[in-house]
Design a protein that fits this description.
Chain lengths: ~325, ~200
């Protein structure tokens, strides 16, 4: 079922085309985040400027014509309202114009499901780590198929923490991946460590690291920040792995691109005889293919939404979304 | 003086030991290969020290916890309680009531447990013991206390919980605040679909 998906929840405007789970195109335009972070009005404007171009490029890359489309999906949330609206309006317009069934998609479900299927896993324990989210989840059928949250951040997502630190510390480019590069070869200094069972918190360590960056070398601060924050995620994940008796561990989301985090989780998985899985970085970063992927499955299950019910929800909880 | 492994969790390994005519339990926090050595040794040392401190404090406040025998860098040696975990037996109203009083005393001593469930309560003869303070903390906020009560609410049936919470309220100094906070927590979306163990 040839399906197009539009992702526009944050800095990335992504358009993907899939057919029977196979990705035919995955095109993106990214808003360049400066020292002030994401300014909602500007990010939305960026998406408006680029949406028609990225859609055309996706059709070219997939070598299909709009008239061949059989379904469409868009990110319903969570995300920045004005940004979500761009994808919503584009998707609704195409659906109406071409008479296509349409499916609103939860952004996090997109990341998890494309990673899970690409890793060849049936029901893994999932660690979803991105800018706005940091959650440990497990699929359950009660009362209907959805991801149940076993543990999560009490405050901000780990990606947001790393990005905010990078900007505050004056790293250029002001981005979490810069923290990873800067950390290489650093020495360890003490940082606050906050884990409560399977939950964790990142604001304390952020404040501490920003202060430390004024008096200590950035290499050491980046190294210690990463080691401590990732250890927190790992401790909570290990506890959840044992508690849920899982023999598979799947990691996804933007921060899953970090090789140090992957290495640490691999150590945990192998210690407990679990298989570790992840997907290509193009799907860990925000993208349209994952939205098309989930939309296609929902539409095949008969879960098309009437146009007037195609809304957006800025705080759309992952555990309230049904998985088909 | 043979040590026998009797349990393994995400954080520690528990051994049973008979020495000097006494039954003892040794709880050892094992190194974690995923985290760097500096951080690993700091966490294990700090948590062991804290747990020992809180066991001592609970003991001093007359709460039934295993007696502390020795503390090392990463290990705690405690008295072994020979009894049955509440999770393995049919909980009676009397046990639920004792659990409520025990938690009230713990909270009155300024300690929250962090994992107050039938898996960490042991009955030995007529006495009820709290056996693991590994996730305990010295917090005075009603949020943390309410989470202790919530865990029991999830685990006990409706009738037993009623007995439990009545005996808790009768003894806990800040029971009103704690129970008000409990309703607040339950109203939060994230807890409605959460897997709490």
């Amino acid at each position: 079922m040839l399906t197009l998906g539009i992702e526009s929840s944050a800095h990335t405007l992504g358009v993907g085309i899939v057919d029977d789970g196979k990705v035919l195109a995955n095109i993106k335009a990214m808003y360049k985040i400066g020292t002030k972070g994401m300014i909602p009005r500007q990010v939305a404007e960026h998406h408006v400027q680029n949406v028609h171009r990225v859609i055309s490029q996706a059709f070219e890359a997939a070598q299909v014509k709009p008239s061949e489309l059989e379904g469409i999906g868009y990110t319903k949330g969570p995300g920045i309202g004005s940004c979500l609206q761009v994808g919503q309006v584009a998707a609704k317009t195409i659906a109406q114009r071409l008479g296509l069934p349409i499916a609103p998609v939860n952004h996090g479900i997109g990341h998890i499901e494309i990673a899970r299927v690409n890793a060849g896993m049936s029901n893994p324990l999932v660690l979803y780590v991105s800018g706005g989210n940091s959650q440990i989840l497990k699929l359950t059928d009660d009362p209907h198929p959805h991801y149940k949250v076993m543990g999560e951040t009490f405050d901000i997502g780990i990606g947001n923490m790393l990005d905010t630190f990078a900007r505050g510390a004056g790293l250029d480019p002001a981005w979490g991946s810069t923290v990873e590069k800067t950390a290489t070869g650093g020495r360890y200094i003490d940082m606050p460590y906050t884990v409560k069972g399977m939950d964790f918190s990142f604001t304390g360590i952020l404040t501490h690291a920003l202060k430390a960056s004024k008096s200590t070398g950035l290499q050491d601060v980046c190294f210690s920040l990463q080691e401590t924050a990732f250890s927190m995620l790992c401790e909570a994940t290990e506890r959840a792995l044992l508690l849920s008796n899982s023999d598979e561990l799947c990691i996804c989301g933007g921060v899953a691109q970090n090789s140090r985090l992957k290495q640490m989780l691999e150590a945990i998985a192998s210690e407990h005889g679990a298989k570790m899985g992840f997907t290509e970085n193009q799907y860990n970063a925000d993208n349209g293919a994952m939205i098309a992927f989930v939309a296609e499955r929902s539409l095949k299950a008969g879960a098309a939404s009437p146009l007037e019910k195609c809304n957006i929800e800025q705080r759309y909880r992952l555990d309230s979304a049904r998985v088909y | 003086m043979a040590m026998e492994k009797i349990g393994e969790g995400a954080e520690a390994t528990i051994y049973s030991l008979d020495a000097f005519g006494k039954g003892m339990v040794v709880k050892t926090r094992n190194p974690k290969g995923y985290r760097i050595a500096d951080l690993d040794s700091r966490i294990r040392r700090q948590r062991t020290k804290k747990e020992a401190k809180l066991i001592k404090r609970a003991m001093d406040c007359g709460i039934n916890v295993p007696r502390l025998i020795a503390v090392g860098q990463n290990s705690i040696v405690m008295e072994r309680i020979d009894g049955q975990l509440l999770k393995d037996i049919d909980i009676t109203a009397e046990m639920a009531s004792s659990s409520g009083m025990l938690l009230a005393k713990l909270h009155n001593a300024g300690i929250t447990h962090g994992d107050f469930t039938p898996a960490n309560l042991m009955i030995s003869g007529k006495k009820l013991y709290l056996i693991d303070l590994g996730l305990s903390d010295t917090v005075s906020s009603s949020e943390e206390k309410a989470l202790d009560v919530l865990l029991m609410k999830r685990q006990l049936g409706k009738n037993l919980y009623k007995v439990f919470v009545e005996s808790y309220s009768g003894l806990a100094k800040s029971a009103d605040d704690v129970l008000a906070r409990l309703s607040e927590i339950e109203a939060r979306g994230r807890y409605q679909s959460r897997a709490l163990g």
